[in-house]
Design brief:
alpha/beta, Metallo-beta-lactamase, Chain A, 2 domains, seven-stranded mixed beta sheet, globular
Amino acid sequence: MRISLVPSSTSSENQLQFLTSYLINDTIALDAGSIGFYRTPREQARVKHVLISHTHMDHVASLPIFLENIFNLSSPCVTIHGSEAVLETLQRDLFNNRLWPDFISLAPNGVRFLNLSTLRPGVPIELDGLKITPIPVDHVVPTLGFLIEDDKAAVLIPSDTGPTEEIWQRANQAANLKAVFLESCFPNSMAGLAEISKHLTPEKFFREVKKLKLPAALLAVHIKPLFRDQIVQELQSLGLKNLGIARMGFEYVL
């Protein structure tokens, strides 16, 4: 399994993460914050499936651009996977002919921009040789994390969340868990804001990973750029030997 975090910074400091998209085996994207800015349209068109964890802008910002970029380059058209709440919000608030044309209904000359597929919490789907299980986490809007498995490895991507339980229970039952990409948005001094917005600080990151009973690489993601240096320092002070700061644009082979 090959996973990379799609860069979202155009500055020389390209390790800053403003938006969220994971690229998996070149054909699956998890979230669409920055996938529409990835390399060339033809390379983007290799993506056949996009799974949306939730509808916050940093996770869907480039979805319209991505769909426009690959229109007519991909047959059949790309499938967007999301919960009922996600798909309803995309229709009402994004593809509504006000913020963006209704790509869900449009089909110029019979060619569709996208297909939709509903994710059911706890119900695995099979995509391009991967088993992907969507699991609810605790965020301020309905949000799914994902357990992604092939015949050699499993990877956990909880997405945006505060302290949560079910996803760790599922992870502890996984065979060959190799890595966890877990958020750490705010420094410890902003624990109040993290609690209100249902995100993690380094201290809460530590408490969450202690729920994991299996050995796995811990990769910190979703670090707010304004506080990056402070958050990284606080994460590194936790003394977790298997901790790394996820690198934007780097391909993790698991």
